[in-house]
Write a structure and sequence with these properties.
The structure is a homodimer of 154-residue chains.
Chain A (H helix, E strand, L loop, with lengths): L7 H22 L4 H10 L5 E2 H8 L3 H13 L3 E5 L7 E5 L1 H25 L1 H18 L15
Antiparallel strand pairs in A: 1-3, 2-3
Chain A binds a DNA duplex (30 and 30 nucleotides) through α2 and α4.
DNA sequence: GGGAGATGATTAACATGTTAAGTGAATTCC
DNA sequence: GGAATTCACTTAACATGTTAATCATCTCCC
């Protein structure tokens, strides 16, 4: 079997952890987890957004997002309301307080990102992004070739 | 600020998820989570190994590893014993039952990996591995440049 | 226009990630 | 040689990942 440390999931996990290790302390100092930051960060780019769409752009599963939105709402960092023409949908936006928090964290975050870019190289970083995107695209249509399917009609 | 979807952590997360999505159903059919598989997989490469070293190679934090080992032990997939000359250390090895399980999962796992390699390209995959390793190395010495450190003596 | 099915969001249940604290054994250092 | 420290591992506590189930609304179709 393949050398363990060379497996693709492990390489991606290790690389991501190496990056996140840089950001976590700063976020922590501002009372934010990585996922909470992702959500607030995504909210700054739009006026308002539906929960499902937010889950897509912040790359979180529904249940995780539900919990985090409940918490962010309790901390008054976001605002929620029902969609006008569909009682099922909820619309979320960042609050003034949330915006203020983002602005407090952003400088450090940007500085860390700049340092990473400096160390790794801007060109190489762009190339890495491109290759990761291509990997995603390659696997897009590869519908989980599941062995031992219990039900034939799945 | 940077376009959200272009952040490095997000790219790495999305790529990893695209890969893991392929493996999870098969592992699930065999009653294993991704982390449990990582541990058993790492144990097949050695005769026995201490817990701390296992945490390093399987890239898991101590607390996660403790919990999972407890579970794998209860399922008789691994064996545990104390180190001979140091009562603090615990030594872990895979059991015959665990080995049998690995052998049952491996073919599907290898097939999925082969398909990923075919789609993405073997050369490109190797290059991606190299770039991820370089990224890790670039950030190795970058001791969390924490802003707003509460204590000056940290 | 009302009931079956689809849809958006949440809740539930269990496993892991993450940091801090605890426990017992080894080492250090007067 | 024993108190203080360090070390390996585990527990604790809380947040998120993951899948399944629930709940309310909406749509469709008869």
């Amino acid at each position: 079997m393949r050398e363990f440390s060379r497996s693709l999931p492990m390489s991606l996990l290790r690389a991501r952890e190496a990056v996140m290790r840089q950001f976590r302390p700063s976020l922590r100092n501002h009372g934010l987890t990585e996922q909470q930051w992702r959500i607030l960060r995504a909210l700054t780019a739009v006026d308002e957004i539906e929960v499902t769409e937010l889950a897509r752009v912040a790359f979180l599963l529904g249940p995780s997002l539900s919990r985090i939105l409940r918490d962010l709402d309790a901390r008054a960092l976001i605002e929620r309301k029902a969609a006008e023409n569909d009682g099922r949908r909820a619309v979320v936006s960042i609050s003034a307080k949330g915006l203020k928090l983002i602005e407090a964290v952003a400088p450090t975050s940007e500085a860390i990102y700049a340092e990473i870019t400096r160390r790794y190289g801007a060109r190489k970083l762009a190339e890495l992004h491109e290759m990761l995107g291509a990997l995603e695209a390659s696997l897009a249509g590869m519908g989980s070739a599941d062995d031992a399917e219990v039900e034939a009609d799945e």
